[in-house]
Amino acid sequence: MHVVKFRPSAYPYAPVLQVREQALFGDQLASVELKGEMHLGFSTDRYCTGYQIANELRPCQFNALTTGKQCEYCRHQEITCAACGGELCINPGFREHCAKQELSVYLASFGDHVKAGVTRKGREMERWTEQGADCAAVIMEVTDGQLARQYEKRVQQVFGFRNSLRTSTKLKLLTSSNAALPSLLKALDDLYAFHDEMLVHSPKVIELEKFYPRIYEKPRAAERIDGKVLGSKGNILLFENSNSLLHAVDMSSILGRTLLPQETAQNALTLTQFMPIKTSEPAQAIL
Fold it and tell me: Does residue 18 belong to any structural domain of this protein?
């Protein structure tokens, strides 16, 4: 079973691994919830996860061995609007729809780090929790994706807000959530001192701690899941082992690896236990 995607989830819902399984009539995509007691290992070798077009996850035609989640060919096949900087449209076939999209520009804090981002209006909570943000607030509501990216880039450059954070950085910040709210409030004070007419009036700050497992100590790094799954904070999966010690797995490093369940009657995973992946949703740009 080839791991192709990890979907974080806000509490009380379980995070999900999406896997590709070789079946009698061709490859089959399925997903498995990560919850309860689990004992899963992952291969050392990584193979390309393929690429996404609209909502279809297509397999790599070369089954390429790779050091990351994608080979060079599949990386160039996947056009994501998330990579747009606002200057020049990188997805011309989607531009007409993009110009009509309603989007939110936001600030989100991860410990004392603040980043600026863009997401579809109405998807803010989902976006913040899948990133593992501690606090967040919408600062602008914009129609036209290209324009939203321009505003995002401008506040990043003027105020020094981050464009992204590596999972390794988020791991180090897991026990620094107390710094998140003061950091976000200061960032908003600095931003609103400029009285830009595009800024929303009285931004609402959302604290997100309740959507994640309680982190009571610095977790130990792990490369497999071996205990009671507590949930996820962004791409970080948290579990307690048999000694009640907290562990964290960087699930972004698992993509492309082969799932190796413990071979026991209690823990073995089969495709019949998986939930089929829904593919009937309308096409959207990846934001």
Answer: yes
Phi-psi region of 141 (alpha: psi -120 to 50; beta: other; left: phi over 0): beta
Residue 287 lies in a domain: no
Q: Is residue 10 part of a domain?
A: yes
207 within some domain:
yes
Per residue in 252-278, pLDDT (tens digit) is 999 999 998 764 334 445 443 444 444
Contacts of 236 (CB under 8 A, 6+ apart): 132, 167, 170, 171, 174, 248, 249, 250, 251
Residue from 209, 165, 159, 163 nearest 189 by CA: 159
Q: Return the pLDDT at 84.
A: 77
What element of type H or E holds 137? strand 135-143
pTM: 0.86
- Which residue, among 186, 143, 134, has the nearest Cα to 161 in the 3D structure? 186
Q: Is 40 helix (H, G, I), strand (E, B) or coil?
A: strand
